[in-house]
Each structure stands twice: as C-alpha cells, then as structure tokens.
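Practice problem: predict the structure.
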Amino acid sequence: MELIQKFAAVEIQSDHRITEIDRDYCEQHQKAYETAISSFQELAFFWEDMNKVQQELLGGSNSPIFCDYLSSDDGPFISQDMIDRHINSLHTNFIENLTFYFNSTYRVSVDSSEISQMLIPQEPDGSWGSSRKDRRKKYREQMQALTIRYQDVVDQIILQLDGRSFSEQAFYELYNKCHDAAWNVNTQKPQFECRKDTITFNGCFCHVISYPFNGWAVQETMRDILWGLAHFETNSYCTLPAGFSALLGPGSQPLKEPVVEFPTCEKVKQMKLFKNNRVDLKFHSPQFAEQFVNKYLGAVN
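Answer:
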C-alpha cells in the first residue's frame, strides 16, 4: 500500500509541473488519440469480417469464380496492413503533437524522437530466422494494445529539461542563444559594449541588401539577441512587442530603413543598423541597458 501511495504522489507531482491550460490541451488530445485508435480497431474488425464473407461466397483469390468486390478504382484502398501501420503511426503523432505544443508554448527544444524511443516498442529488425514470425506477431500485439498516457509524455519531456521547470528551461535556452550570439566563440570575448543607454554590437550582426532592391537585414545572431530583447520587454516567450514581428515573425521581410523605432516599448527605444555590420540598441535609460546585459548577455568581468 505504501508503494502505491508513493507512485500516486509522483504522478500528482508530475501533473503539477504543467498549467491547467496545458493539462486541458493534453486531455483533449488524449481523448482524440484514444478515439482514433478505437475507431481504426473497429474498422480492422469490420474489414476482416468483410473479407471473410467474400471468401465464404467466392473462395480465395485462386478460386475460378473469385472477384474482388471490396476494391475498385473509385473506392478506398484498405488492407489490414495499412490499418495496422496507421494505428502504429497514431502513437508517434500523439507524442509529436504534445511535444510540439510544449516546445512552441515555452520555446524549449525537446526531441520527440527520444520520447518515442522510450514509450513505443521498437519494431523487430528484418533479419530472417525461425523466431522472426513470432517476434513480428508479438510486436503487432504490443502495438495494438498500446495506449500512451499524456502524463508519461510529460514525464519524458521534464526529464529532457534536466530538472528545470518549463519556464526555467525556456530562459536557460534563451540566455544561451543570446550569450553565444554576443560573444566570440574563438576568443571568448564579448562582441558588445554598453555605454550609458546604448549597447553596441560590433561584428557581423547586420548587412546591407543591394539586390534586387536596397534594404537592410539583421543576421541570425542578432535575431537571437532580439528574441531575448522581446522577452526582456514583455516577460513572455510568445508575445512580440510592436515592431518586432517584422524582425522575428515568420516570413519577415528586409528592412527599408536602417533605424527601427519601438514606440510601444517601455525598456528598449530604438535599433540602428550600420554599413560596417554594427548594430546599436538604445534603451530608455542606462539602467535598462545594464539590466539587459547582465540578464541576457552575461556581464563582462
């Protein structure tokens, strides 16, 4: 009894690592996933029964009077093997959907394939031998009986966070990207300088576009820093302040002017690009500039 209580306590603790919104999302997908499995298992049963009736009436495919009334050019192509493979794919899809949700919601980088390896039985290799048929049969039975719980997926995700909460992992990854972008990998020296209310990034942080039209573009290193700047302004991993969407949003276009104003931001004021690949970030006060350096870039000793 004591052991059961310990397991229950672990499950409750794991479930409390996610928000109520996260839990609602997981539970909705759990129901849809389980319903899909059940529906396709019913389809497999009906398909087997349909084939059985056809064979009883006309014999097998070698019968002289055989005609396959279950397939045609205009009908769906169904087979027991296709149904089995689709049910097998539902387990992977379920894990990928939940992992994508947490990755996109918290901007973390969890590998869904590692979770699949832990929760889904491995398919037997194609080697020949007397036990191959038995191994294939056992694998099919395992896959047909398998139902993955969202709690187990969440547990595996948390394991990949190395003990951090989602918010802690999100900031850990964000900080590392900002820090790596702002420091020279070879010399381990900063590529930025903070003077009063302005941080100057000296290196390859932007470039001029001369063809097919004149414009400006920020480099990927600067985009990593801007993601940190957006979080510094909003304390959110999903919300972008006005003016940031053109820089970080999907399908963002080159800038027409080298100066970008952030009129709705309370901390950062302006970004200015230079032809020598330099970028200046101007803040509303020296204190904000210093805070950004200390929290996102790593203070210079």
